[in-house]
Amino acid sequence: MSEAPTAQTASSHAAEARIADAAHTGPMLAADGTPLKKSLNRALRVQKMRALALVAPLLIFVLVTFIAPIADMLFRSVENDIVSETLPRTTTMLAEWDAKSTDIPPEPVFEALYKDMFFAAEAKLHTRLGSRLNYELTGTSSLFRKSGRKVEDMGEVYQDQFEVQNDFWKTGENWNSFMASDAWLAAMADWKPADGRQPAFELRDGIASTLPATSAAYVQYADFIQNVDEKNLYKTDPWAVIYSSLHEDLTGENDLAAYSGPASAELSAAATAAATFETVNFTEAFAGIDKDWTTLEVWQTIKVYSPKFTSGYFLNAVDMQKSVDGAEMRPENQQIYGILFWRTMVMSMAITLSCILLGYPVAWILANLPTRQANLLMILVLLPFWTSLLVRTSAWKVMLQQQGVINDTLVWLGIVGTDDRLALINNQTGTIIAMTHILLPFMILPMYSVMQTIQPTYLRAAKSLGATNWTAFWRVYFPQSIPGIGAGSILVFILAIGYYITPAIVGGTSGTFISNRIAYHISQSLNWGLGAALGAILLAAVLLLYYAYDKIVGIDNVKLG
Amino acid sequence: MNLTKVLMTSTALTLAAGMSHGQEMADEMTIVSWGGAYSNSQIKAYSEPYAANTGVKIINDESSAEAVAKLRAMNEAGNVTWDVVDVTAADSFRLCDEGLAMEIDFDEQLAPGDDGSTPSDDFGDTLINDCFIPQIVFSTTFGYRTDLVGDTPPTEICDIFDTDAYPGKRSLEKRPIGNMEWALLCDGVAKDEIYDVLETAEGQEQALAKLDTIKDDVVWWSAGADTPQLLADGEVIMGSTYNGRLFSVIAEQDQPVEMLWDGQMFDLDGWIIPAGLSDERKARALDYVKFATDTKRLADQSKYIAYGPARASSAPLVDKHAELGIDMAPHMPTDPANSKNVFVFNYEFWADYRDDVDAKFQAWLVK
């Protein structure tokens, strides 16, 4: 309220300035000497701010509860970081492998896979990745589940041999003594569980260059023990994967001779011993779990889906698939979404059209009856609107089925024989009938409110000028009612393409919509990425049609009253 | 506190012994199940006695059909509001793989059998993954209208493919699971080779080709209540659904419907506890599940619904229906007379192949 006088003052200033302008030349000035334009802008800005403040609650509400979740859901249609996050080493190594080659990746990739799988299995993330990749390659789900269970024992040979070589390698305390920084060791010595979080693990300077693989594995291990398991890292004995990494470091190229930190004596003794250790062939070990690991398909799938973002979901949504050769069509017996998108569009248009045909006369009668009767009829239009969607749909089931009310009546009247009752449900007919009924109020209401504004005098004038009833209607009344048809059609069409409960109940197999598949992917297969891609395409189609409508009919022509 | 209450509380504590003893537990819990007669049987057999023993306030939610999606959404939002969830075995695989369900140490956290067997022995083969606590064995099987199938009622599963002997519509579930197995079986594939055949693209084609022979005569259902309704209305002459649903059509509603037990598909239903609960809620959920899956409680449930208990030690305790007074054993899918020819739903196979086969199945349906 406090700003209201300002606006008034400004407008009275503007009036004075206009009078003043009659006498002077140069820029128009307000009474206080500021240029009129500036003064007016200031006043308008205050008004705009006030308007914005008034809509702010709704705007923020819509942004937070509507736009943001939709954007988040749509983002899933391209998001794919699960592969590279769960298998970081493997995906990096795979970058050098030619997916089109006929050989499976070399041993180092399998070794990387062992490490990644080991950590993933400890964190129970391997099965999640398995179900993700199972959407692309059937069988990956159980492959990962199975491998996760067995990967723990795979590298144990190294742990056993190191521990036989020297008792030093057995305990976590010894490992920490050379892997961790002195500062962390000191902090850890003082730490008690009552203090809360453990001091975060710090790697000793220089150890990473001497033992790169071991350090990387140890850091990951330490992070997991401290933050996920919440165990005392100081007292925890390392996992098998640390030993296999140590073996890798000690037998590979390293400058162990240059290292002079703690445990350098143990390390160089271990390095000598490690040269003669029994080794594990990880390729064979994985093949032993499941021969699928030696098939090209598994590796091609992992490689193709390595990037953080993927077009795979969108390709799936248009009956294509991502392969090593790029995008290609799916086999014909798996193509389904194209048919469903097309069917959704065509049937929604059919529903919109039948709503226009049925709704127009009703709206016309409503608009031309005296108010009392019109209101009564209006309740009849609105009554089904207030009834639950499920109840209405189920009622149609009773009406339309072969032993249902309509067929029984037709048989009783002798119009159809008992043996050739009409199939009115579990097909497209059922969907169109039930959805036309459900969406009819959305068509009638905007038509009615537009028709109410059409002056009856125009029709009378047309007739008095010699027009027939039809000409008067077609040339005078109908053009004026088009904005109502437009508004109703947009409402009905957009609602129709998103429907899924009604098609699911009465649509059978030929009357289901794309939304039924989206619902399946959201609630059954949990393939939210594909669901999001299908949803994004549907949204884009709606926007495109809306744009086309605007170009052809003009959105200004749409009126709700 | 009066004496009865003290006695009841101490009984509850004895039942709830083990790790949860003496631990802080939440005094309110949300149990999610399927609704309808099934939820009622659980409330009568488990929840009411449990609430009486412990004074816990139990909130019943009927969202099991969307449990997987909702649990994932809750998990992502970091706010899991459910404590115990009833899911099918197939869903439990997905939840366990996605890390949405807690892993259970069966021998530690469940009650031993009345006969002294350990939980893992007593549940036996029904323990199918690390998260799933089995509760009932149910089957998807066929029912037929006695008045619409002529003088020789169907006796074997392949009669559903015989449109000459049994003309008329039949209802099948609108998903590949079950239908593909039956199709292959009736196309001459040996029962123990079905899943090997179904793994191959040719095998899937073969199953769809067999289903194609009756495609025009099929009404596809997606909710368990559809087939009983369709049978009652005479819309179909035979159809598949869960055996408990058919039991209520036959025994409770007295419709002219009979069971066709041949080739029934055994499946499991049970509890999972969502991952990420607070310690108190987890303790409460484990306590409830331990109580609800002991020998007595599982047998009690069969008084209200025709599903077989998942524990071997519960089977001898299966008694009469609580309201109808009829003997329940002959209505159990596990009854020897009914289970001469059964399929055991291959969970691992379908966990892998569900999406792929479903895509093909749906593509076949829309053509």
TrEMBL record, chain A:
One of its GO terms (biological process) is transmembrane transport. It comes from the Bacteria. GO terms for cellular component: plasma membrane. It is found in: Cell membrane. Keywords: Cell membrane, Membrane, Transmembrane, Transmembrane helix, Transport. Pfam families: BPD_transp_1. The keyword Cell membrane applies. CDD domains: TM_PBP2 (cd06261). The chain crosses the membrane at residues 51-71, 340-367, 374-391, 432-451, 485-506, 526-549. It is a multi-pass membrane protein. Its main location: membrane. Residues 341-549 form the ABC transmembrane type-1 domain. Belongs to the binding-protein-dependent transport system permease family. CysTW subfamily. PANTHER family: ABC TRANSPORTER PERMEASE PROTEIN, INNER MEMBRANE ABC TRANSPORTER PERMEASE PROTEIN YDCU-RELATED-RELATED. This is Putative spermidine/putrescine transport system permease protein.
From TrEMBL, chain B:
This is Putative spermidine/putrescine transport system substrate-binding protein. It holds the Pfam family SBP_bac_8. Coiled coil: none annotated. The keyword Transmembrane helix does not apply. Keywords: Signal. The keyword Signal applies.
